[in-house]
Each structure stands twice: as C-alpha cells, then as structure tokens.
C-alpha cells in the first residue's frame, strides 16, 4: 500500500506559522482551529448523505437571495456559527445563508477582534448527486471598536483587507486549503484518525493553464467579448495548446481547486438572468481571489481586481474571472477589444 505522508498536522502547521502573521497573539490560530473543528463535523454529516433519509434535499425555505435552501446548507451554517461563537474570538459573522450579519450577543464576544464571512456549503445542490461541495471562509479584523457589538462596516471591507481565507473541499478526500497572505497550503483529512495532514505545501497555480471552466449553457447570454473568448478556447490551432479542455463541476470550490493544481481559468460572467454574475463578492469571490493571488494567479470582475472592489452590501454579486496568469491575459485582450 502507498505510504501516506503523515508528517505535519494542520494543528502543528498553524502554530509553527503563527509568527508570520503581523498581529500574532495566537487568536488567529485558535480561530483557524475552530473552523477546522466545524469542518470535521460538517464532513461527517455530508458523508452520510444518501444513507440517512433526513439530510438530503430542500428545506422548503429560501434564503434572502431567493435561493432554495438545502437541509445541509442550514446544518452547515449552524455548525460553523456555533463553533465560531463558542471560542469568543469573533464578534460577528455574515453568512450566505443569513439575511443579515449575526452580531454575537454575549458580551465576551464583543471583545473578539475578528469577523468572519462564510459560505457554509457552496454548491449544495450537488449533494443529492454525490458531487463535491465546499465551505468558503474569509477572516477580517474588525474596524469597529473592540468591546462593542459588530457593525455593518466590519463586514463591508474590501477583499484586500483579508487576514486569512480558505476553503474546505468535501471531495473524494476532504481538504482544507488556506492562506494567511504568505502562500497557500493544503491539508488532507485522514478520516481513520480524524486529523488533517499537510499534503500540498505552498501551492502555486501554473502560469499557463489549459482548462477553462464556465457554465457554457449560458453562452447566449454572455457579452460578445466573452463569447469570442470561448470560441478562442475551442479553436483548433497547430501552433499552441488550444483547444483547451473544458471542465465544469458546478461547485466553485472544486472547480477552482482543480484549476489551482492543474492550471486553468474559472469564470462566472454576467448573464441575462444574473446581470452582475451569480457569485457573491463577500462569501465566494473575495476569499477565492485572495487564495488565487497568493498562489500566483489573478482574479478580476472583467475590469477591476476583485480584492479592490469596495463592497456596498452584504450579498452583492460580481462577475468573476480567476486563474492562471496567461489565460487571464488572453481573456483581457478579448475584453479590452
Ligand atoms: P451556491 O452558493 O448557491 O451553491 O451557488 C454557487 C455555485 C458555485 O459553486 C458554482 O460555481 C455555481 O454556483 C454554479 O452555478 P450554475 O449552476 O449557474 O453554473
Ligand atoms: Mg456559494
């Protein structure tokens, strides 16, 4: 049997690297540990989907964005919120599944220096068909006064203010991939002993990719520049690596994870139905952009760098393009005309 690389655990790695963080006090480390714990709980539940009757399917309610909530969306949301509230390091959380931000009521939480933005279960409609899903999180220092309840301004910070961001991918194996702004590292879960091990140190997205990931069913609703770029991706050329491969899982975490390892471009452009794109700036685009940039890639909305966009509302959507430098440069040529 192949040997498993069990040298550094996520817990050890967090502690060893905590001094790389400018305000190192151990609090961020504890915060990452609470996210790790919640990820394990959600992972255990997701693995039962299909066996246990009452965890698959829809709840029958919609979130504030008019999307049907899955039972596991609601479950994952509660697990992450409870885990974060319990450690008293965070004064509030904003989640894709909540109408507004949650300011933790206990006074002890008001002393928390951080806030979290989270998409507890991204791609959740894929659960019923046993396809990978993910959790995406983003950590910021609060801007309001420590000792008071969290305020809206704490959550509406530009992505370039992120202290850390990461995702959990519940796939053929479960992984946590995160950055504190000095590179990206990935940890794979060993379910037999319940531990994450460093399996993908210092992930770098290849500068030249050959995978494009987009819901091409929306092609008629894309702007001509994007349509032309997609035609370009499919061209039969004797002198370069095109046609590129098309890969689209429909779970952003899985699509981006694959592209980070293999090289590629992921996009969710504006469509007729979603004139600002479908993906949410705060819960999906900012954390993924921070991770991709830290892995050497790029992320923009077709014009502006995602991380420089000043958010104006919690559930704001933006068109999203991210990936390998060369593919992003090719796309830019089409967009700029
Ligand atoms: P969700 O947060 O409601 O799960 O939606 C986000 C998902 C992304 O993971 C995925 O890339 C995209 O929506 C898929 O959308 P579509 O089915 O329109 O291609
Ligand atoms: Mg999502």
Shape field: globular
What is the total domain count? Answer: 2
Q: Specify the number of helices.
A: 9
The structural class is alpha+beta
Q: Give me the count of strands.
A: 15
Radius of gyration: 19 Å
Instruction: Report strand %.
Output: 15-25%
Order of helices and strands: HHEEHEEHEEHEEEEEHEHEHEEH
The CATH topology of the largest domain comes to Fructose-1,6-Bisphosphatase, Chain A, domain 1
Q: Which ligands, by name, code or SMILES, are bound? A: 2,5-anhydro-1,6-di-O-phosphono-D-mannitol, magnesium ion
CATH architecture heading of the largest domain? 2-Layer Sandwich
Report the end-to-end length measured between terminal Cα atoms.
54 Å
Largest sheet report: 8 strands, mixed
Considering DSSP H and I runs of 4 or more, what fraction of the residues is helical? 25-40%
CATH class category label of the largest domain: Alpha Beta
* Average pLDDT over all residues: 91
Which residues sit in consecutive blocks of at least 5 with pLDDT less than 50? none
* Strand order in the sheet with the most strands: 4-3-5-6-7-8-9-10
What is the CATH superfamily classification of the largest domain? Fructose-1,6-Bisphosphatase, subunit A, domain 1
Question: Brief overview, please?
Answer:
The chain has 337 residues and is an alpha+beta fold. It has nine helices and 15 strands. Residues 67, 96, 119, 122-124, 215, 250-252, 255, 278 line the site of 2,5-anhydro-1,6-di-O-phosphono-D-mannitol (AHM).
